[in-house]
Amino acid sequence: MFPLVLRKLAWCLTAFLVVLSSDLARAEDKLKLLIVDGQNNHNWKAMTPVMRAELEKAGRFTIDVVTTPPNGAPKKDWDAFRPDFSKYEVVLSNYNGELWPEEVRVALVKWVGNGGGLVIIHAANNAFPEWPEWNRMIGLGWRDANYGPRLTIDARGLPMKTEPGKGPGAGHGPQHEYPIDIRDSEHPVTQGMPLRWMHGADELYHGQRGPAEEMNVLATAYSANDRSGTGAHEPMIWWIPFGKGKVFTTVMGHVGGNDTRAIRCRGFISVMNRGCEWVATGKVTIPLTADFPPTHEARLIPEAK
Ligand code: ZN
Prior knowledge:
- There is one protein chain.
- By secondary structure, the protein is α/β, with parallel strands linked by helices.
- It has helices at 4-29, 44-57, 75-79, 102-113, 132-138, 261-264, 266-281, and strands at 31-37, 61-67, 90-93, 117-121, 150-153, 159-162, 176-182, 196-202, 216-223, 232-242, 245-250.
- It has one domain (25-281): Class I glutamine amidotransferase (GATase) domain (Rossmann fold, 3-Layer(aba) Sandwich), CATH 3.40.50.
- Helix 4 (102-113) links the parallel strand 3 and strand 4 (117-121).
- It binds zinc ion.
- Residues 42, 122-123, 203, 254 line the site of zinc ion.
């Protein structure tokens, strides 16, 4: 029999370890997410805080932001841009600008290949036409018609490839509210969403081009001819396996000037939050945003004051 004092000490130690391990479990529950921004033909300075706040509210992420040097910055500034992707489970790109240094490109490709989860928002798919692995990862980017095949969904709901050089290249008509059609309602990200929901006013990307290999299209939108569109169902959300990793793209999320309607859409927020969780874990625990948009009406979160 241990003396009483030793038994008390053992009890205290056990209690301490239980508290410590539950604290660790809580910290481990959170996924480490890195937002990359710094150059964009969109107002990335307005975008990142809105997206970050909504990701934080989801309660699943600890978030860092890394900002690249501005366009035309000297080499020494780029030499200092060396994000350590290996510290993160998710990288979200809000970047559309100059090509990253080779070391950073190699590191990103390696990180995704080893199981990292990359999330591409709107014009982030415009970036890097000259980077082959990037194009393989995003599948479709803002490129001209000769760049590569295009992918649309036909009237029967089946994917249809168009050859390079045929049909339209990348473009969009004027911003408007448009319905999102869920094409895979079993996927963890889209599960529980209405099969058609109204997206807040946004650009409707069409004619995106790329290698378009191993594309898993989760949702499309009809690009109407009377909205300067293509008369086709254009991919809005898709994912691509890359090594052990996953790359999740949504072309929703245009922010020009201070008009943040597209990213304040409650549907967009769910797509982003759940996409980030899913690329990291293969599961989704984040519920759909409250007041999720129904078929005929967009629903936005209020503008931050
Ligand atoms: Zn845009």
